[in-house]
Design a protein that fits this description.
single chain; 120 residues; alpha+beta; four-stranded mixed beta sheet; 4 helices; 44% helix
Length: 120
């Protein structure tokens, strides 16, 4: 399952992305498989649950039981944190280093998180 930023139901507080949602019956959870996090989005959000076999719900329940319940971060919060980090790195880097810094920002999320916490 591909990863993306969710604009309505929030994102993983570790990486700011989601792998989408899983449901158990009418209850929907968004997940991040990379960090094994989940957050409850609500019930009866999408009508497709009514047409799924119970075996899908049991599989989803087994997976969700292994994941940690977290509070998602809204996309706007994550974008603001990235903006602050980017500004901080631009201020600290010389003009020749700025391009390389931007590459590191996009590829190293764990480094990014520690820097974001310092910036906020």
């Amino acid at each position: 399952m591909s990863r993306y930023r969710e604009d309505h139901f929030g994102n993983c507080p570790v990486c700011g992305q989601t792998n989408g949602c899983l449901n158990i019956g009418r209850n929907f959870w968004f997940v991040c498989h990379q960090h094994k996090t989940k957050w409850f989005a609500g019930n009866s959000l999408f009508s497709g649950w009514q047409f799924e076999p119970e075996s899908n719900w049991l599989t989803n329940a087994a997976l969700l039981n292994k994941y940690r319940d977290v509070e998602p971060i809204p996309p706007s919060t994550w974008r603001e944190r990235l903006r602050l980090l980017s500004e901080q790195n631009k201020n600290e880097a010389s003009p020749g280093e700025r391009h390389q810094t931007n590459i590191h920002i996009s590829k190293k999320r764990h480094y990014q998180l520690s820097e974001i916490k310092k910036a906020v």
